[in-house]
Amino acid sequence: MDRCASVLLAFPPRGDLTDNETYHKAASAHIHRLSKMLKEQSRELVAFSTELFNVLDPAVHSLSYLTILNALMFPSLPADIPQEFVLEKLVTFMMAFDGRQCRYAGLPLLETMEAVGSGRLLPPSVAVEALATAILKLDPSGTMLTSSHLLLASLAYNTDNIQPALPVIDKDIVFYPGMANHENAQYQCDPGLSSASYISRGTGLTKVLKSSMVLEYDLVCGMTYCARQEWDKARAAFERVVTFPTKDGGCSKIMVDGFKKWILVSLLSQGKHSTTPPYTTASTIKTLEVLGRNYVDLAAAFVTDDVQLFKLEADNQQQVWLEDGNAGLVKEVVASYQKWRVLSLQKIYTKISIAEIRLQTKSAETGAVLNKDEDVEALIQSMIIEGMLKGVIEKNDDGTKFLAFLSPTAHPSEQEFQRELKHTAAKLQELTPIFDATNLRLATSREFIKWAVKENKRDKSNDAQDPTLGFDAQIDDEDLMGGLPAN
Description:
The protein has a domain at 2-199. Helix content is 56%, strand content 3%. The chain is built from 22 helices and three strands. Strands 1-3-2 form a three-stranded antiparallel sheet. The longest helix is centred in the last third of the chain and has 30 residues, at 414-443.
């Protein structure tokens, strides 16, 4: 045991490890010793695991702590050690390990995260929180999509443990494994690196993701937001599926599924069928609209005041909604129809009586006006509480109630403005390594180099022209996700 302990406690060594080169050499040497120990002394690590865990701090001796966990967990949990003991140490490690140190952990860390993400070892609520915490410890920016993200999103959605996963899935993804023109950093311990410089298949911290897996992640994220009725976030997630770069205008089944859900949540978040961004492939959208014709027709009827037409579209395609797994979303859309008709009145009125609203709007659930003014008032109050409507209900001296629409914009206070400035400055600071990594990747891309050479040969008479014009046109759609294996 003493021999094992001396190796396990050897890192981090005493002294200043702020220098990246010194840290890198020490960590690399330690990993080499731990790998050899795991192969040659695995039984000893298991036999003395209790004593060894007692002398190790997972936040300080993260690599060593992980080595003992690997000896205990793989290929299977030992029969002679209580499972509760191992799982307790597993959770402790996932919640406390040093992210900088574990950049060197490679495959052992990935296997541990996959074991947690499988949902077979820990209760789902514990597993989701532990895995989300581990992902952000390894990449605090959350900008790198990894194979662990897919496990987390699926486990959180399928077990309805969404809240602990939100700190991860709320992050904006910028980098993907296997991107072209992106090499691993010389010293992966450098705190200033972007996550794409140390999380890759080469470092063992993620598996390579196929394009279908990226689509699946965004689709699951969208459904996760739907479960929380966060329609704006759901729309953005499904839009990433719909606008995913494709070759020759093709589209996959996942894209078709995402397109159908995207239309429905667009109605819920915006009250209309969203227009696709200008970079969307026209031929792909045309194909999606043909395959999702029922949803396009439903959206067209939704924006009209003809409640019978909309109700007919919704009712006649019930089997389609069920087969697509969208019956619940369509039900939400039907319930929101009258709310959006109420909102449309603010284009005409600044103030309107509740009785008049009842006469001018109808419920798509019944196809008729609501029975009482009180029902309309309750509907409006729910819209105000949800943040969907900015307005107040006022009462005249004669007892008549009115809805007064409020201006959607309000001037922030000086304190609110200062907080917003600080928040913006912090976000810009976080974007610096992302910008540097993206700029480096662009500068070393084949397409950019070809464009730069061509620009150097341009006639001097064109010097006044915008030097960035024309570069975008030289990049094919399928190059946008360069390096991702095709489905």
